[in-house]
Queue: 4 jobs
Job 1
Amino acid sequence: MAQSITVGIKHLLEEARKEVTTLPLDEAVRLSDRDDHVFVDLRDIREINRTGKVPGAFSCPRGMLEFWIDPESPYHKEIFNQDKTYVFYCASGWRSALSAKTAMTMGLSPVAHVDGGFTAWIAANGPIETID
């Protein structure tokens, strides 16, 4: 028997976007070099190697996000224990919207995500750090 999915990705994204601050690209670029913001790249390392990343962004694979945020987790990363604004981004803004909502549910605050993701960042000629 086929699965009967009752809540699809469109609904999940719609719900996330109601709760999460979405940064317009120009604002995200302006904030990207500030010390009071942590940009979190959720893309797979292969994506980052292929296209680069926001300069200074912290790489956190989407599959590890909850484990790295939770201070009780053996995988916790101290970068998620700072009094800063966390700005999530991915390729197009879908993973980042869902991730930002999850981070907020866990208690991380303040949190935002980049509208259009890294694809829009590249199109707008935002600064890029390449990975060697």
Job 2
Amino acid sequence: MILAYAAGAAILFGVGSYLLLQRDLVRIVAGVMLISQSAVLTLIGSSLTRGQAPIAPEPGRPVSDPLPQALSLTALVIGLATVALLLALAHRVAVVFRSERRDALAANEVEHEQELSPERQRDQDETAGPPPRPGGSR
């Protein structure tokens, strides 16, 4: 049974890593989500023990540990919030730059930097003030 959990976590991690290396932003977010879920599955698989619920255990019988289940629930909630934030950011990037591909975003960023370079140079010249006089300020 633990081997099935390990195999499932390995498959989820492998597919998530593959998606993380893609060029589309939505696939990158899906890769992050799958890697997060593989961590949760690993945590659940590593804590498999047989025992009673820790609410009212009988004396002398094994009790299961509730901590991995609580950590898994916390990881699920944090992972869901992270995926929601990443999807919102990917949507905003797609709206602003009109592309979801990393290559197009990088080209757009280089183009934008080239447009801003003369403006930045002019702003730096204006804020620098007049050049210092030779011989000090006396």
Job 3
Amino acid sequence: MTNEPLQLGQASALPASPDEARLDRVPNPHPDTDYLARFTAPEFTSLCPVTGQPDFAILVIDYVPDRWLVESKALKLYLHSFRNHGAFHEDCTVAIGKRLRDLLEPRYLRIGGFWYPRGGIPIDVFWQTGAPPTSIWLPDPGVPPYRAR
């Protein structure tokens, strides 16, 4: 997190890599309330680090904020920065979850990476910070099990 103005409301260049991408956060207007925020990225793309071929996934990010919310434009730019980034499915999914955890310090966060098949096998990756608060409704991710998604 920097002291720079938010990327929201101004022209923002597409980051060349996830390491160069800047994530912005904004204050949570309801820090006294447990609630779930969900982001779904149905067209997430990265590259296979071995072949350079594109990999495609549906990402579902659920979190219970504490003091901070992730700013959605910055999140979109960050996720898009993986388009030319070579990493395995597991690395992409877990790295995104950890970066959001470190930025937001949420009460709870989980990410599901529902990856389309490569070599005939889909690899779905799930990571979370711990148990969700009992006071929230945690809906199903809404992505069906693999049946030729």
Job 4
Amino acid sequence: MSSNLDALYRSVIMDHYKNPRNRGSLEDGSLTVDMNNPTCGDRIHLTLKVEGGLIQDAKFTGEGCSISMASASMMTQAVKGKTVDEALKLSHIFSEMVQGKDYEEAEDLGDIEALHGVSKFPARIKCATLAWKAMEKGVRSEKGLEE
């Protein structure tokens, strides 16, 4: 990856970290999931509003490193308005991407693609995937699926 692209990706990650989208929580009987990464102390509290198989809204609170919090911000943006199945597929693509595996090209990944470089830092993969794992746990419980 070119240094210009690396710099762009770093700036996107820092923007989401410093100016998180969808920070907060939802009321009205929304799904809630609390997860943490004991390795580094990242914590997330995710709330999702799922109706008719569609993720209507997503918010998070928590604390952690820039990768973890930026990823949570990006994830909440990416899944809003998606069906549960679309969100689970996107989560799978994201997981493959940050592990440096070949992944199915999706429609434009948007800001999420900025986390592609995490694959070079195996210790940070759990940081990047924490919010995504929380979303998966929440929507799978909503669908009555096993994890």
